[in-house]
Amino acid sequence: MEYYGNKLCVSARELVDGGIMTLPNYKQLSARGQMEVVRRGGGPTRYALVAVESLPTSYREKVEKAYPGGDEVLVEGWILSNYELDQGAVAYFNEWASRQRSDRASADLAMKYAVNASVLNTCIRLYENAKASKKLFGEKYDWEKMARVIEVLREKLGHDLPASPLRFRKKANEYKKGGYGVLISKKFGNQNTRKVDHKTRQLILSLAAQPNKPYNTNVHEMYLSFVCGELDVWDFETGELFDPEDFTDKYGDPKELSESTVSNVLNNPANKLRLNRALLSRTAFMHEQMPHMHRHNGEFSLSQVTMDDVDLPRRMKGGEYVHAYYAYDMVSQCRIGLAYGRKKDDRLVVECFRDMFRTIERNGWGMPAGVEVEQHLMSRYKDGFLMAGVAFPFVRFCAPQNSQDKYAEPLNGAFKTTIAHKNHEGIGRWHNKGKRRVEQVKVSDETNHTWEDKRYYTFEELVADDRRDSAEWNNAPHPNQKKYPGMSRWEVLAANINPTLRPLDKLTLSRYIGERVETSVRRNSTVRVAHEDWWLSGPEVLERLQPNNYKVTAYYLPDEEGKATDVYLFQGDRYIDQVERMETYNRVLAERTEEDVAKFVEQRKKVSAFERYLEENAIRKVGVARPDPPEEEEKAAAVDPLPEPEEDIWREVRTEEYRTGAGNARRALGDI
Known about the structure:
By secondary structure, this protein is of the alpha+beta class. The strands form four sheets. The chain has a six-stranded antiparallel beta sheet, with helices on one face. It has a five-stranded mixed beta sheet with strand order 7-6-5-8-9.
């Protein structure tokens, strides 16, 4: 008998040749439909199959008597029909085999474990399927019948599950609770992980988290030395000394772990993460292990500017580098601010801001809405220029030592690997591979830290090359050609300016990032700034000065040549005036040009404005005189005379005291 079409079947040949029925009986029952032929015969190998349950009772009893074990055939057929290889088990055991150092942990063994898991999955599924289980076993699940069937399927499926009904039942229950791992032989090291409880695992990780970063073999040696009492281990925080007696088995013997067990503990992904956190530096762990934030770009230019510094890769004589500072527009990726210096200091940062605002002013754009800066050089401006609302509505200080946080970092990298690498030699790093590798030859000298360079460059050469490269970068096609087809970075910048930008605030910029000059008002009309004379906007400005104080502070943003542009005057924190450059004209009449005449007119307007101010605010003249003294009679009448004393007896006494000084002595004694 065999299982076919989810039914227990017997072949027509066995019915006839086995003496169950004659050939005419078979044909007659088949033709009348009194038995079900589930498969028709034909050909040398294809034979007809009849469902046993469809046979008349007398014939069915003969079949069951002649061919016992039909129920087991049904179970075998159900298992084969519902069996499927567990791909999760395949992946699990293959990964397990790859971690073992034993040659016995082969791919074939891993596949055998996967088949074992798949067979048990099918048996457990039959156990939980009440309808199928009742049909095959009756009212009660028959573990003995299942074990016999599993033994029959050993060759067909290639499993090595136990044949004993009791052991098979135990293995099925262990697998149901413990999963794939319980199928692995105890001969392999992974079963020793059961000895690794939480306390032991923590000890192994602590031993591995030493500053010298020990290898796994060294950690295993330290563990064995500790449990044998040869090595002391203590907790740095509490000072508690670990007791080897806490790491023993149930017999009181030291808990012995194999080298592969310790390696498995240390190579566990969660444990590796914790070890890296303990052993790597903060920046290395952040860049290599920590998850990072995922963001998308904006839509408008100058909505946010991102800034960062970089050392130009090629060196000057003496091994020194040119330090550069860049300001990028985040949407177009254009470099809109450039600054260079021999030192990476505050002056470099200020010059980058100045260059950026000169670019913005030349093109008639407004103040950028936001800026993204680093902590190192920018922190001193947190309470001034880079306070939100002073110059930029939105200011963001990026996390220190986190290059992933600033968008300028990947832009610097893209510039270096494309434009700079294409135009110059020596762009790359010694540890890179392929075309971006830079060869370095060490010079054996007293420092043992000198490297040969093919060529050194001057400061001016490096700056000029970088400015040309930056112009090429700005005019190169924007990398997102799907969104900006046929447009360069500069075209994207100019075409997508944020419409909500504030006008350029040169007053604020001049005060915080401009040049500062102490000067004073001359002749009530001019100040001297940057070797030039500048007109006050009008004489009424004098009313804003402090009393008797003509000293003022001038602020201005220099142009590319360092000359003053718009100059603003302050006294302390109080704004006074924006002055105008004084343009001189030729005093020789015969040589005057139209430009001289225009300058003469402008100066005359200034002088006229002063004259008009003085006329409009002229002081009114008044006369003053003392009143006449009163007549003698009126004066006498106005004063009541004192009554004459009867006798001035003190006159001579006072006169004598004054002459001899006795009065002074008397008054001094009285004071005492």
